[in-house]
Specification:
Blueprint (H helix, E strand, L loop, with lengths): L3 H10 L1 H17 L3 H26 L3 H31 L13
Helix pairs in contact: 2-3, 3-4
Length: 107
């Protein structure tokens, strides 16, 4: 049975992933200046989700949240590598990185 103190302790630490997730979502939806900021915002979103998985794993004394966080980190690394490769190719073609010109990437 969970005590009242442990739930209070968990609720204080669970606000950080929520704030990070909202910051990443704000970067994608509101800012949208260039594609690099959008990629960084996606990384912040994924790191917030990882932090939430790890906190829940520690709170529930279970290993699955930490394993899922490792899986998400590998997916985030692959996403960053592919996204940056697309950005470099797009910059070589257009010589600028603009969100409005992404429609040229359609096949």
């Amino acid at each position: 049975m969970l005590s009242n103190f442990s739930f209070l302790y968990f609720s204080h630490f669970s606000t950080l992933p929520i704030l990070l997730f909202l910051l990443g979502l704000w970067g994608i939806v509101v800012v949208r200046r260039n594609l690099i900021i959008i990629l960084i915002s996606i990384e912040v979103l994924l790191l917030a989700v990882n932090l939430a998985f790890i906190l829940n794993s520690l709170f529930l004394d279970d290993i699955w949240g930490q394993l899922i966080a490792l899986y998400v980190l590998t997916i985030a690394g692959a996403e960053s590598a592919i996204g940056l490769a697309i950005l470099v190719a797009f910059y070589r073609l257009q010589s600028l990185l603009s969100v409005d010109l992404v429609s040229f990437l359609k096949g």
